[in-house]
Amino acid sequence: MLLRQLEYLVALARERHFARAAAACFVSQPSLSAAIRRLEHELGVPIVRRGRRYEGLTPEGEVVLAWAHRILAERDALHQELSALRGGLTGTLRLGIVPTALPAASLLTTPFCERHPGVRVSLESLSSADISHGLAEFELDAAMTYLDDDGLRHMRRFPLYEERYVLLTPVDGPLATASTARWSRAADLPLCLLNPRMRNRRIIDECFAADGATAVPTIESDSVAGLYAQLPNGRWSSVISHAWLHMFGVPEGMRVVPLEGPAHGPRVGLVVARDDPPSVLAEALLKVAREAGVRDALDALLTSYLGGGPS
User: Which residues, including other chains, have CB under 8 Å from residue 107's CB and lie 6 or more apart?
Assistant: First the structure.
C-alpha cells in the first residue's frame, strides 16, 4: 500500500468527483482511478461505489478513509518532528477560522510566522460544523472558533478572547453622542448586519431579544468585509464584535458606542485535536497563543476607540 494511494482516496472523498480529485493531485484521472483500484485489490474490499459517476464510498471504504486520514496525519507529524530536530519547523500549518474571527487571526499568525519562518500557513474560512469535521478528519491542524460548540468537546481548547459587541453608528446619528446605548434603541436604527446563517448574527439577535427588541436590518451580508463595505456612506449603523476593529477599524464619519448588557459574549479560542502523538505545528501554534495576549490587545484597541483614539 502506497501513501500516494491514500492521498488519492482522501482527495476523491473530498472532491466527490474523479476528475476534480485527479486535478487536485496533479495526475490524470485514469492514473487516480487505477491507483484506487489497486488499493481495493490490495485490501481485498470494495472502496468506491461506482456508477456512471462517483456515488460515494462503501462502508468498507469509509473505514479505509478514516485510516487514510490517520496514516497521512502520522506521516505529516513525523516530518514535522524531524524538521524540528534538524533545527527548525517546516511544512504547512492548516488553520480553519470561523469568518467572524478572521479579522483577529493576524494576532496569532504574525508572531507564529516570525518564530517559525520555515512554516507556511494555510488559512481557510469555515463554518463551525466544517471546522469540527476538519479537525476530526485530520484535514486541519488547528482552528479559531467559538469554544462552546458541542462538536469540540473532545478537542483541546485554549481561550483567546470573549466577543464584545458595540454599536458602530454615523457621527450625526441619534445615538452618536450617547455614552452607552440600549439594544432596543439600536434596533430602531437603519441597520446593516450579518445574515442569520452566521453564528455571530444569531448571538446578536439573542441580545436584541433580551432587551425586548427585534432587529430588522435593511442590508444583510454573509461576510464581515461585505458588511463593512456598506458603512462609509454615513447612512447605516451596525452591531459589531470588537475583534473586527483590529482589521477594519472605524470608518471615517462613524463612532463606536458601547451597548448596555452583558460585558462579554461567547469565547473564541484556538482548538486542536487530541492527537497522539500531537501535531508539532499545532503545539507550536498553541505555544504562541499562550504568549500572544490576544484578549489584552483587542481590549486595549477597543478602549482606544472608545476614548477617542484611532479613527
Answer: 246, 292, 294, 297, 298
